[in-house]
Amino acid sequence: MHRKSLRALAVASTLWAGVAVSAVGAPTAAAAPICPGAGQAPVLVGSVPGAALESVVVGGDGRLYTTDAASGRIFRLDAPGAPAVPIATVPGGAGGLAWAQDGSLLVGYGSSDPRILLGDITRPGAVAKVDVNTGAVTPFASGLSAVNGLDVGPDGFAYATNDFATQIGRIAPNGSVDPDWAAVPSANGAAVTSDNRYLFVARTFANPGISRIPIAKPGAPENWVGLGGTDVIGAPDGLVLDSRNRPIVPANLLGEIWRVDGPNQYCALATGLPTSSSLAYGKGSSGFSEGRLFRVGFDGAIYEIPGGFDG
Question: What is the pTM of this model?
Answer without folding.
Answer: 0.91
